[in-house]
Hints:
The chain has about 375 residues and is α+β, with helices and mostly antiparallel strands. It is about 40% helix and about 20% strand. It contains eight helices and 14 strands. Strand 13 (about 355) and strand 14 (about 365) form a beta hairpin. Helix 2 runs antiparallel to helix 3. The longest helix has about 35 residues, at about 235-270. The structure holds zinc ion (ZN). The site of zinc ion (ZN) has 8 residues, from loops.
Amino acid sequence: MKVKRGYKAELDLNNEQVTLAKKHCGAARWAYNYALIRKKANYEQGLHTPYAAELHREINVLKRTDFPWMYEVSKCALQEALRDADDAFKHFFRKVALKKQGLWKGKCGYPQFKSKKKAIGSARFTGTIHVYADAMQLPRLGLLRLKEHEYLPMNKKIGSATLSEHAGRWFVSICVHEEQVEPPKATGEPIGVDLGIKTLATVSDGRTFANPKALRKKLNKLKRAARQHSRKHTGSKNRQKARQRLAKMHVRIANVRKDALHKATSALVAKTKPESARPRVIVLEDLNVSGMLKNHKLALACADVGLYEFRRQVEYKARFAGVEVLFAARWYPSSKTCHACQHVVETLPLSLREWTCPQCGTWHDRDLNAALNLAALA
Ligand SMILES: [Zn+2]
């Protein structure tokens, strides 16, 4: 089976390359905004709304006289941004149609302008893209050094490459068309996984994955940085500096968390182990979306993001390892049910980490009991 897979790696750019990369992101942003303006204006006048190819022809004429800077950037960046604008409207109209039928309750998401104040943004490339062991080649930008060697797949068909910036670091992500061999079905014992805030994950076989210790300390620092940022005058240089500091801190925390999540989800799926050592089924809780979004506390909010990411990782890693993933029904009381006798207690405050079943007298670790209940659903 043919699959598309994304690979992302950090780039090691020199100043000249950073400038050129920024120019490409800027050009992409400009083209996207240009498309929005043109489409909106024509739509309001009842005229045909121009598509990416038409707009690109228009820009090509204009660039000779009005936008000479465009000669410095690859035409791909502009083309792809114009295509993104097409897609943005397509999605918008699709949601509007769904809303009319009552099948969509959320916002329709009218395409918004991209602002350089918000982020440097990104630029997508097609065309001549090559991956080498320690570098990658993009149109116009030439050879760019990679920080991690031999991670990106070489000699594969590459659909596109996206250049992006995040808190001062530059990344490239490539979309690769791969031939995926259907993995043999796993045959090991099913496992249940209880996700939590104190412990990242508790598994029904007794394993636990702790939340990284560095996280709490970093969160306190983050709070302070956020306060300092909010005290600086709007529009001042100091505010800008504080914002960059804050952004870097957010990225560092996110990376610590991401690393812990990847280690835990990889260990659960156990792709490299033989079929009999991989769980047949992994049972997870279904997450309560609206309830979680009400969390305003920083630590909890971070944890929530982690839960979604955990679930996403387990799902895609399981797919590559022949492991099935099941979700418990939303209101299934995995914590409140005694796994020994199925007695359901009425209340179980979150602060209670251990409890004894009033019916059969079994002592329970809250998280492990929940994990065992989930495993039993398989
Ligand atoms: Zn019991």
